[in-house]
Predict the 3D structure of the following.
Amino acid sequence: MDGTSRHAMMQLLDGDSETAGLRARLGTGVATVTRICPTRWVFRNMPITDDQTVTLLRVGSQVVGSLVDLQRGQGKRYAGLFIPGPDFETYRSLFENAVTAFQAIDEATGGRYQEQWTVWADYLKEINALELRMGETGIPIENFEIDGKCRVQFDLALWWQVETESTSP
């Protein structure tokens, strides 16, 4: 990928014009999330400052959540923190089950590790079947993973990367 297309992609990933709308809907310029019980999410007391990026996570036209401080990780993986969005309720149980399943992996002993990992992987398959997209332009993502602390990792869809690179000037 050349420098121009990489710069254009990073502009798409660094937050979008809807971020201001998200902040405005929250009223204070601060989005917050707290987990209560093991996996219940509510907006509260986790400031998102102006120097942090917030990128919307979508299922179709629904905003299921936001990705905070999205960073490029190893290889072509991206990582950040997931916070629920306005349309999260429809998908709450699926995401909560994935988070709980990951927590069970951490607590697994003996031969139960593989069993718990398989349960977590099955929930991730269901989440990935939602065909998640991010940002205002709806960049498709693949291999979405969420852990027991709502940290996420994913890849940009390979077909999208190839298409973007081939159409870049």
